[in-house]
Write a structure and sequence with these properties.
The structure is a single chain. By secondary structure, the protein is an all-alpha fold. The chain has a domain at 37-71 and 78-150. It is built from five helices and no strands. The protein has helices at 14-31, 41-66, 92-108, 112-140, 142-150. The radius of gyration is 17 Å and the shape is elongated.
Length: 155
């Protein structure tokens, strides 16, 4: 077992988790349709959610880079980021990823991504976030515990 103080033992690359689920949803839709149509408002809302997700992702990146640490879930954090969107959520990038996921769901026009969402959440929570949290706790100790007591995991 890896020492969490050295680096997170992340099991899956986060963007790939979402991408695989969306691809699987598209593939399933080709075989068993669960299509819905909220046109034209669905397309408008979908692109809006994607825009919010991308803007939030950039905001989080700026906060991470301003703290001179990494966004790579396989590398060790050099500093604890508590500003920007991290002042509201311990996992803002993953929150914004959900905005993108929901936006793409509306653009695909199928319920399959919603049915796969619990699986995505489980993989993210236990295959990624759990390992990132163990790393941050091992690396930053009391400072990270204080941060956790003040800021919720999601929102």
């Amino acid at each position: 077992m890896r020492d969490p103080a050295i680096r997170p033992a992340t099991l899956a690359p986060p963007p790939l988790v979402y991408a695989i689920a969306l691809y699987a949803a598209w593939w399933l839709e080709q075989r068993i349709s669960l299509a819905f149509n909220f046109e034209p408002i669905g397309r408008f809302i979908g692109w809006g959610l994607i825009g919010i997700g991308l803007a939030g992702f950039v905001w989080a990146l700026v906060a991470i880079w301003s703290h001179r640490t990494t966004v790579n879930p396989y590398k060790a954090a050099s500093n604890l980021v508590t500003r920007g969107p991290f002042a509201y959520s311990r996992n803002p990038i993953y929150v914004f990823d959900w905005f993108i996921y929901l936006g793409v769901t509306l653009l695909l026009g199928t319920a399959w991504p919603l049915l796969l969402a619990p699986l995505v959440w489980l993989v993210m929570r236990y295959g990624v976030i759990q390992h990132e949290e163990a790393h941050l706790l091992a690396k930053f100790g009391d400072e990270y515990q204080t941060y956790c007591s003040q800021i919720k995991r999601w929102l």
